[in-house]
Queue: 4 jobs
Job 1
Amino acid sequence: MNIREHILELAKKVKGKVILPESFDIRVLKAAQMLTKDGVASVVLPTDNIKEIEKIASGTGIDLNGIELIKIDRSLLDEKKIKEFVDARTKKGMPVQDALELLKKPLYFSMMYLKSGRCNACVGGAVYDTADVLRAGIHVIGPAEGIKMISSYFLMIPPEEHPVAKEPIIFTDCAVNPDPQALGLKDIAVATIGNFKKIFPGRQANVAMLSFSTKGSANNKVLSKVIEATELVKKHFAGQSDVNVDGELQFDASIMPSVGKRKSPDSSVAGNANILVFPELNAGNIGYKIAERYGGFQALGPIIQGLSLPVSDLSRGASADDIYLISAIMLLK
């Protein structure tokens, strides 16, 4: 599978529009040009100074033709959604004027532009840090129904001729939650499975709830949350034949058929996992970086999940191509 072409073709069918709040960053401008030129999506770039963005683009040879540059203006937003946001902030003790001032900031304005139904997705984080993107997303967009924990995933794309991984695999959560408990791990898994289905429609989701133990090979109280979370996820997807969930499973038992058969012979996931749910952030963050740096995987993300509308974070080291692909992913339905 050419995962890049697969994602782009799915995104093109949506004919969506994405807003990129960091319009002053050259990587973002390059990604906007690519999205527009390739017909992947329409792009909106919000700014306080349109001429300055045009100057940056001109100086770097970036073509803004077909890209919608808009001046940040409250009149472009839904007044009802603004009132809901302001009311929520004032209940937390923020003065009304301070809440309105937030909406003049590109990140908050972009989230509210999405909330107002003016576009289909918002992608930021090339400059803003994860905490800023999450804060704006939670305050403006809010969590999806039935989800209490906002999380993230990485789409891990193996290099050609990788000896083990032949298809992309999802790692979660590797960027947001330090130590989720059983209900949190359940929310992370549920959101990730939903996103897996968007990226790979019709494909079987094989979900491994990771641990240092496989089916009782060790006995420690820290395993209890993984075991409980596994049962919660299984219950959530009961009767859905396209979702297999198992745990607790060690990493090697999850991805290596020979090891999986030996350690958990009755498991339909062991040796075949394409979604790996890490038990906490230390393991997840270290794991994806080992795969990226030692294993040569391309790590697309962190992609935020669990919000009621498509919003994503970016690594501050993201390339223009990363922004391009993640924007496409966020448009998938």
Job 2
Amino acid sequence: MLFRIIKNSFLKRPKAVLLVFLSIAMGAAVATAFLGIAGEISHKMALELRSYGANILLEPSAAQGGGFLREDDLPKIKTVFWKYNITGFTPYLFGVADISAGGKKERGVISGTWFAKQLEVPGEDSSVQGIKGIAPWWDVQGRWPEDADEAIVGATMAKRLGVVAGKELDATVGGRTRRFHVVGVVTTGGYEEEQLFAPLITVQSLLQRQGKVSRVLVSALTVPMDDFGKKDPASMTKEEYEKWYCTAYVTSVAKNVEEVMAGSRAKPIWQIASAEGSLLKKLNSVMLFLTVLALVSSATAVSTSLMASMSERSPEIALMKAVGADRLQISAIFVGETLIISIAGGVVGYLLGNQLAGIISRTVFNSTIASPLWLFPTAIISAFVVAIAGSVVPLRRALLIEPVRVLKG
């Protein structure tokens, strides 16, 4: 009997049912899209933010007494627990040299580094590491060095020396002189514009520091820092330390890297790490707020539609009460209708939301988005919550209908 009443109700009021269905489906679609993006946004935004610079600095520990790190240890960085979060790294070896070109001469910093080095790690996939990966914002007028005697010059130094791409310059350290062919002039807006950059192996030879590096910049995907992440590991219990170590905080990833690099000290670059964490938290909050706003708007639309429907169905409800239907039976009819519409709206909303999330992901991040399994039940539950929330006031109004007044007209 209940199902026959619900069926007849749908057939007699197709426009009203369609309106409620569309309201629920649109709410579920928007919620699915926003939640789907929110589930991926931290990872995708972290990848985007990695293009703005490294977030971990690796340098010799105090015990080294101003020493150097070993270049041979660098491949170990890609073997740590969080190795898949390490998106790139590059070493530096600094020295002071007499740099001359075209009759002009000055003392300046020469930096040996990797530009795009093919790194082979036993048991792991090969990868390309270097400045090109962790500092893509560097603007090089010319090209990147490829041979041992090629170099790029910072824009400020190049201007003082009158050097452009295609020219040559000499770098002298301790009576040893090396001639470099300038293949590019780099603009960064920072201190790098005052330096000469050349392949690491060449600068090691010039400085007589074979196999040594001064520092390493590491770029890693991390989660936003919270109060627990900022806690001192030395004060943690064993359980707390395990939780901290197995969470991709910038501090725990830095600890990972420090453990494999002998004589090193790894520390987060807090200006970058803090800004990233704050931005990701705000983005997630915005996505959650928009999701709630979409559901509230959908519930309001459902409530408005049902209120209009209840006004039309007042005689029907009054007649059911007159022939003996109690509050529970009337509630069962309307809740049953709402449940069926919400399930159908949730399924359609999930399908539409997936498509909407894909469009947003391709437009904003230029990539596809993977739909997590939990989104489907979330869409159904969201649709059901919207339907129930929207039907509370109309149902209460229906239960307060007095048969005598309505049937008397």
Job 3
Amino acid sequence: MELPVSFADRTRSLLGDEEYNKLIDALNGEQPVSIRLNEAKLPHVSAALLRSCSERVLWASAGFYLDRRLTFTFDPLFHAGCYYVQEASSMFVEQALRRYVGEAPVMMLDLCAAPGGKSTHARSILPEGSLLVANEVIRNRSQVLAENLTKWGNPGVVVTNNDPADFSGLESFFDLILTDVPCSGEGMFRKDPVARSEWSLENVEICRQRQRRILTDVWPSLKPGGLLIYSTCTYNTEENEENIRWIRDEFGAEILPLNVPEEWNIIMGADFPVYRFLPHRTKGEGFFLSVLRKPETDIPETRRRPVSTQGKKKPAPVVSKEQLAAARGWLLSADDYELSVNGTNISAFPKESISALSALQQSLRIIQAGIPLGEIKGKDLIPEHALAMSNALRREAFPHEDVSYEQAVAYLRKEAIVLAADSPRGYVLLTYKDVPLGFVKNVGNRANNLYPQEWRIRSGYLPEEILVVD
């Protein structure tokens, strides 16, 4: 692997000759493949998934390495949200959450969240009743984020599309903020050739300044005594240790330690507790993390003006009481949710977080909140795909039919589906290996495919070798 000369020189200086040479050998080696299982969806498929795993990720309770890369695009269980393909080192965020988040519900912000690996991970670990706000500033990436969180299935999520500065209006709002900030990407050189080609000393400095702007913008929204998790996928000290020192000195933050067994081979900071992953020491890519606590006596800063919502009039609702009742009947523990109507769309949101959602709606651009349940078209109430993915789905509300692998892939391509002749008419929940895959409307001679058009498998052919969970 050809690396920028300046990067090589400064990284050798950081690590020393022996460690640097081991790093280069690792970067020229095979990239490990790791997944994180969705334990909320595991009862149906855990044995099959575990057969595909070779060893555990030591710092992640549901993280596993695979012997080889699966054909994820053609695995229905991947599309059903049974697991997430996530780089192993980044799963270390779990250690911060388990150490410092107790049993009481919390309000968490994942500020730079797309495509959703850390958000789905955090949502699996946060205490019951918590709310996760997952944000992405780039519009098209926020849609990918919403897709991945929808597939993961937890209803206590709000997906937003905002600049970090927009959150400063939510003064002392969050108990916990994860800032996996945009960085120079040195830790992704093996995985991403673009990261190598775009690296420069100038870009390192640009990233360092951008990171400090992001932290300054979001700091007011963290409660006094709240936690900030700072992470990057880069090696240099400018974007890592120097920024942690700056946060400590600028905001009076306390840098907190984590419990890290020696056998994990994670490099710990000498001056204060920070944690660096190197590919020749740990099975994964480069990663850096630190946990900081905001002072309890921190004086709130001046509230900034929230994002304007003028001109965003909601269409008048056209949903009947009968349709609302029908949608409510699709939910497990329906009394735990408040239903709302936006035009022809019905959604559900956890009641315990309604006041928080109201505050978020005043300041932020919300892409999705809670569970989209259904849409009114004519006299029909059409169930949303998000309902099929949700852990709150009451499966008994729909007839369901388990499909073969070939039928599942056809469905995921949004092709026409033919069900058995004795299948019930109307909306049918398709399952694969007893895991919900999505809805069709069975009209007899065919079943209209309701899979989201923008999520479909676009490839029109199957690879010669299909490797999926089986």
Job 4
Amino acid sequence: MENFKSFLKRKDIEISIQRYLIDALGAMAQGLFASLLIGTILNTLGTQFHISFLTRIIANIGGTDYTVGGLASAMSGSAMAVAIGYALHCPPLVLFSLVTVGFASNALGGAGGPLAVLFIAIIAAEIGKAVSKETKIDILVTPLATIGVGIFLSSAWAPAIGAAALKTGNLIMWATGQQPFIMGMLVSVIVGIALTLPISSAAICAALGLTGLAGGAAVAGCCAQMVGFAFMSFKENGVGGLVSQGIGTSMLQMGNIIKNPKIWISPILCSAITGPLATCVFKMQMNGSPISSGMGTCGFVGQIGIYTGWLNNISEGTKACITASDWTGMFLICFILPAVLCPVFNSLFMKLGWVKTGDMKL
């Protein structure tokens, strides 16, 4: 057993929640951002601003036409797997071999491909690390082991993992349609909390394929955390803090939350209000890329996703046009209400002595 532990240590194989559910999941979201999400944004920009370079077909592969954004989106599986490998500290041959593993697991996982990539890329990466540089023909053995395990697991597991993720996401979206108030509150609060925790709300939403009303509630919860913390802590952190939290991430407050968890109550309460408002009053849906549901105001990706969803619905004929009510709902839920409610709640908690000046200083 001691020899096995020393082997794992030598290979930097750390079997832990931190490594697999925080580091790997967070990296997977970055891989998605750098492929699928950027591809979606490029397509949207090209369509809306009539940029010929972005709307022109630049490749035809297997009978499928691709724009610049389309090619970026098509590489999402490989990007996710390589990002996961990077988070797991994979040596070069393992990291490069994960390109194939990610493509296979994402393709065979279908709509739930991101979750399949997470599981399969982790296993393939760790096995690749285990055999790396253990033989004199490492340049053959390491890629063969990494790709072989990855392709085998993709064939055996990816369809089932993808189907399970899809069913879970569909169940959440169905439940939100049936009980928009309760589910709107739950989804908003849970996804919002996940955004501030050192895990990836974006990757979770992508893995579950969370769109529709549930996606709108998720956006609401994320915005409540980001915009809420940005405005609550403005006196302590100024414009820099407003920008870094408001269009960056509320995760910056995690250290302060550990010191005083009560500072987290205001944005959580706000998300419990804006979530049901999004689902019941404004019927705000996120029908763009599922990853956008977990991004909030980070680079305004959540709002771009909502807007892209409107365009998708119009092109499908399920929506006639973008209305003033659509814009009003999005701005109220994503920006105005969090910016107003969170400071109001926080001032109340300061009067109660739960929160004091300096508790949210970055």
